[in-house]
Each structure stands twice: as structure tokens, then as C-alpha cells.
Design brief:
Layout: E1 13-20, H1 23-33, H2 38-41, H3 43-48, H4 58-73, E2 77-86, E3 95-108, E4 111-122, E5 127-138
Length: 142
């Protein structure tokens, strides 16, 4: 996919991105990070802590926003910043959907800087996280 940087304007929504909240995905992430906390892997522990099941870790939820942005940017841009506030965790068995909307665009030297509002919800509409991101593209040639 080629991004037309000239066509990026405030209000543009980037493609939605989703992932299932499953042990398959979580095991891979936690294996690499050597983080097997019970509440992320065991429904009973999650319930003992007041949740309906096991739940995603905060770093993994944050990593999903990076994955969403990387998929949109492909090799054409870079992530400058991502700032997210968690509201609720993704529970095992739910599906996370992430999205973003361009809020500003500006030239900065040989780059075009794009600011976005970003968010995560689950398949029941529960707000999981909200935040902002800034990405950069090479300025189009004149």
C-alpha cells in the first residue's frame, strides 16, 4: 500500500486494526518478555483479581498500537511518539480493535509530521485505551 502524503488531512481515519485476545498471541508476547504473571495467563487468577477472565498486559496493549501504526505506515513513515492511557484491559476471548484519526499535519524540514488521536475498544464496545501518536513521512518531492 502506498500512502499519498498529500492526501493526509485532519479528519482522515487510518485503517482499523484488530487482534483476538487469545493465549496464542499472549504466550508469544510473554515468552519473549519472560513475563508469565498469572492474571495474564489464568482465568481463575484474573477472576480472583476482580476481572471476568485473564487479561492482556499493559505493555502488550501498548505494543498493539505500535503494530497498528506500523501496518498503516508500512515502510513509508516512522513512529515518532505514542502516548496511551489505559482505561480497561482486553479480556481473554474478546477482540481488540484499534484505530486512529488525523488531528494535525505540518511540514518540518524534509518531513511531514502527522498527529493522531488513537484508541482501542473491544468487540463489546468497551473503551480499552485512548491516546495520541505522532508519525513522520518524508516530504513529497515537488
Amino acid at each position: 500500500m502506498t500512502i499519498d502524503v498529500d492526501a493526509i488531512e485532519p479528519g482522515l481515519r487510518i485503517p482499523l486494526w484488530s487482534r483476538e485476545g487469545s493465549y496464542y498471541h499472549w504466550n508469544r508476547f510473554h515468552g519473549v518478555n519472560a513475563d508469565f504473571a498469572g492474571h495474564h495467563m489464568d482465568d481463575e487468577v484474573g477472576r480472583d483479581e476482580g476481572f471476568a477472565s485473564a487479561f492482556i498486559s499493559a505493555p502488550f496493549s501498548h505494543a498493539y498500537l505500535h503494530a497498528m501504526l506500523r501496518e498503516w505506515l508500512s515502510d513509508e513513515g516512522r513512529i515518532v511518539t505514542v502516548d496511551m492511557r489505559l482505561k480497561n484491559p482486553l479480556l481473554r476471548g474478546r477482540t481488540l480493535e484499534a484505530g486512529g484519526k488525523v488531528t494535525a499535519k505540518r511540514a518540518d524540514g524534509d518531513e511531514v509530521i502527522v498527529d493522531l488521536d488513537i484508541w482501542q475498544v473491544d468487540d463489546e464496545g468497551t473503551q480499552l485505551g485512548v491516546g495520541t501518536a505522532t508519525v513522520a513521512f518524508s516530504a513529497p518531492s515537488a
